[in-house]
Amino acid sequence: MTNDKKREYNNESISQLKGADRVRLRPSVIFGSDGLTGCQHSIFEIISNSIDEAREGFGDRIEVILHTDGSISNIDYGRGIPVDYNNAEQKFNWELVFCELYAGGKYNNNDSDNYQFSLGLNGLGLCSTQYASRWMDVEIYRDNHRYTLRFERGENVGGLQKEPCDAGLRGTSIRWKPDDEVFKETDVPLEFFQDMLKKQAIVNPHVTFVLTHEQSGGEFVYHYPAGIAGYVEELTSGENFTPIVSFEHETKGRDRADLPEYRLKFYLNFTFDNHKSTCQYFHNSSFLEYGGSPERAVKLAFTSAIDAYIKNAGGYKKDEKKITFADIEDSLVLISSSFSTVTSYENQTKKAINNKFIQDAMADFLKKQLSVHFVENKADADKIVAQVLINKRSRESAEKTRLSIKKKLTGGVDFTNRAEKFVNCRTKDITRRELYIVEGDSALGACKLARDAEFQAIMPVRGKILNCLKADYARIFASDIIMDLIRVLGCGVEVNSKHNKDLSSFDMDKLVWSKIIICTDADYDGFQIRTLILTMLYRLTPQLITEKKVYIAESPLYEITVGDDIFFAYSDAEKNAITKGVKGKVHIQRSKGLGENEPDMLWQTTMSPATRKLVQVLPEDVAKTQEMFEVLLGDNIKGRKQFIEDHGHRYLEMADIN
Question: Which letter does DSSP use for residue 94 in this model?
Answer without folding.
Answer: H
